[in-house]
Design brief:
Layout (H helix, E strand, L loop, with lengths): L1 E5 L4 H12 L3 E6 L5 H6 L3 E4 L9 H4 L4 E4 L9 H22 L3 E5 L11 H18 L4 E7 L1 E3 L6 E5 L6 E3 H12 L7 E7 L2 E2 H11 L1
Parallel strand pairs: 1-2, 1-4, 2-3, 4-5, 5-6, 6-10, 7-9
Antiparallel strand pairs: 8-10, 8-11
Length: 215
């Protein structure tokens, strides 16, 4: 497949590139900072500089693809305004690009428990922005899968996860999130599903298979 990733220099995406290349896919990566281009090239990814906050539409940058992945985020330390412009509006712009370019598949990196307000005002804004993006994707008519990891860590991936419509709170290495994203991209039966993701006991392939069957 040809896969375009928005937020291609993020920690999850940098793991995802290797997963996808190992599976034989072609990857295009959209980044805001030109200084990140070299890292993408080193990962075997076609880099495209695109500031999703400044561009009104990003269809040209997204290009021709079989699937897109939204892995962007305003990040820790950003204010409430960027939660809207990146976490929500960036996802919406990617949906519009997918429609315009005839891209049938969209995988969203979201977060668990968006329906449970918590934290300070900025974090609550983040939860609302992500929830609105997820809902827009469900209503978009695009073949979607939404993956909602628990608390993200930078520990090495174990290759063992839990995946289901609803899971207890937990954490998960970013490397394992990337492995799940690669697996759902190759699983047509995952279309139309939203999954929580944490550490677990099942291999990634088995966890995806069981989650799809149980949904």
């Amino acid at each position: 497949m040809r896969i375009t990733i928005l937020g291609a220099h993020g920690k999850i995406a940098m793991h995802l590139h290797g997963e996808l290349k190992a599976r034989g896919h072609q990857v295009r990566g959209l980044v805001r900072d030109p200084e990140q281009v070299a890292a993408l090239r080193d990962a075997g990814v076609e880099p495209v500089v695109c500031d999703v906050e400044r561009e009104e539409e990003i269809a040209e940058a997204v290009g021709s693809a079989d699937a897109v992945v939204f892995a962007a985020g305003a990040g820790t330390g950003s204010g409430a305004a960027r939660k809207w412009t990146v976490d929500r509006d960036g996802a919406l712009k990617l949906m519009e690009a997918a429609r315009k370019n005839g891209i049938p598949r969209y995988v969203m990196v979201s977060a668990m428990r968006l329906d449970e307000p918590r934290g300070d005002d900025v974090f609550r804004t983040y939860l609302r922005a992500k929830a609105e993006a997820d809902q827009a994707l469900r209503e978009s008519g695009i073949d979607y899968t939404i993956v909602k990891p628990g608390r993200l860590t930078d520990e090495p991936g174990t290759g063992r996860v839990a995946l289901a419509n609803r899971l207890p709170k937990g954490e998960v290495p970013r490397e394992d999130v990337a492995a799940v994203l690669a697996e759902v991209l190759e699983t047509p039966e995952a279309v139309g599903h939203t999954f929580d993701l944490t550490d677990g006991e099942l291999s990634v392939a088995e966890a995806v298979r069981r989650a799809v069957q149980a949904s």
